[in-house]
Design goal:
- The complex is a heterodimer of chains A (115) and B (115).
- Helix content of chain A is 0%, strand content 48%.
- Chain A has no helices and eleven strands.
- In chain A, the strands form two sheets. In chain A, strands 2, 4, 5, 6, 9, 10 and 11 form a seven-stranded mixed beta sheet that branches. Chain A has a four-stranded antiparallel beta sheet with strand order 1-3-8-7, with no helix packed on it.
- Chain A is globular, with a radius of gyration of 13 Å.
- The mean pLDDT of chain A is 94.
- Helix content of chain B is 0%, strand content 50%.
- In chain B, strands 2, 5, 6, 10, 11 and 12 form a six-stranded mixed beta sheet that branches.
- The model of chain B has no long low-confidence stretch (mean pLDDT 94).
- Chain B is an all-beta fold.
- Classes of the chains: A mainly beta (115), B mainly beta (115).
- At the A-B interface, strand 4, strand 5, strand 9 and strand 10 of A face strand 6, strand 10 and strand 11 of B.
Chain lengths: 115, 115
Amino acid sequence: GAGVSQTPSNKVTEKGKYVELRCDPISGHTALYWYRQSLGQGPEFLIYFQGTGAADDSGLPNDRFFAVRPEGSVSTLKIQRTERGDSAVYLCASSLTASFYNEQFFGPGTRLTVL
Amino acid sequence: AQKITQTQPGMFVQEKEAVTLDCTYDTSDQSYGLFWYKQPSSGEMIFLIYQGSYDEQNATEGRYSLNFQKARKSANLVISASQLGDSAMYFCAMRELNTGNQFYFGTGTSLTVIP
């Protein structure tokens, strides 16, 4: 389909391991957003990209979290030394531009479980 | 302070009846947008309806309407003629023009439509 896709859909890892979560935005969308949704909560903003650069990373909880978008399309969220508290659904969204007026389209999310 | 408050963790409605999901917001910006998203058990966030802070008329999209009361800072979602497929989590969200492009989400309301 032509929507936002995220892989893997589920990821189980052990405490202390490194994980990568991938997001494929809608073709032509220049803005890409990452959110984290903990159980029973609404999504919380992590970071957003305009093109290749991180325009706002103020939502990243600490320096174990990092995200890249090297070619301005696919993005990877990287989590080092995972902790049990990192368990959540990680949602990606894209929009045509970063304009306030553009709708954000969400992917199905990656459910991360840290044992 | 919470940017978005949803005080109804769970709601029940009879099929074909109307239901109102409450949302209040907190912002000092003059320019902002209010959104409602539906999240079924599959996890994807589905955009339902948008209301801009300068819109004088309440937004409507099919069976969805937004009861916007700016002075009270409320943006309640009204679903008319409920259907079984409306059973899902519903999230109210806000974007502020002057503080970036992220969404602020509420904690959500779980709606169950009873046949």
